[in-house]
Design brief:
Length: about 80
């Protein structure tokens, strides 16, 4: 009987299946109670350390829409507490 070889799992995270550009994220959030411009999405990406995926040199940056929605939630909570 052969002994199976178990390869260690890769330490790099898998690529999310909901990657969008800042522009698409902004468009998807347009009708929400807390809409966000492309600039604001970029600010959230930096503030909440959202991982940026690149489609190549000179291409648009991609981010997980799920992570953007979580950042939007956190921003809404922060803004509501400030009132």
């Amino acid at each position: 009987m052969a002994i199976p070889i178990v390869a260690p799992r890769s330490q790099s995270p898998s690529v999310p299946d909901d990657l969008v550009t800042y522009r698409v994220a902004s468009a998807l959030l347009r009708d929400s109670p807390y809409p966000a411009s492309e600039h604001k999405v970029g600010r959230w990406v930096r503030r909440y350390h959202i991982r940026i995926w690149s489609a190549g040199a000179g291409k648009a940056h991609l981010v997980s829409f799920t992570d953007v929605v979580k950042a939007q939630r956190d921003e809404a909570i922060r803004l509501d507490r400030a009132i």
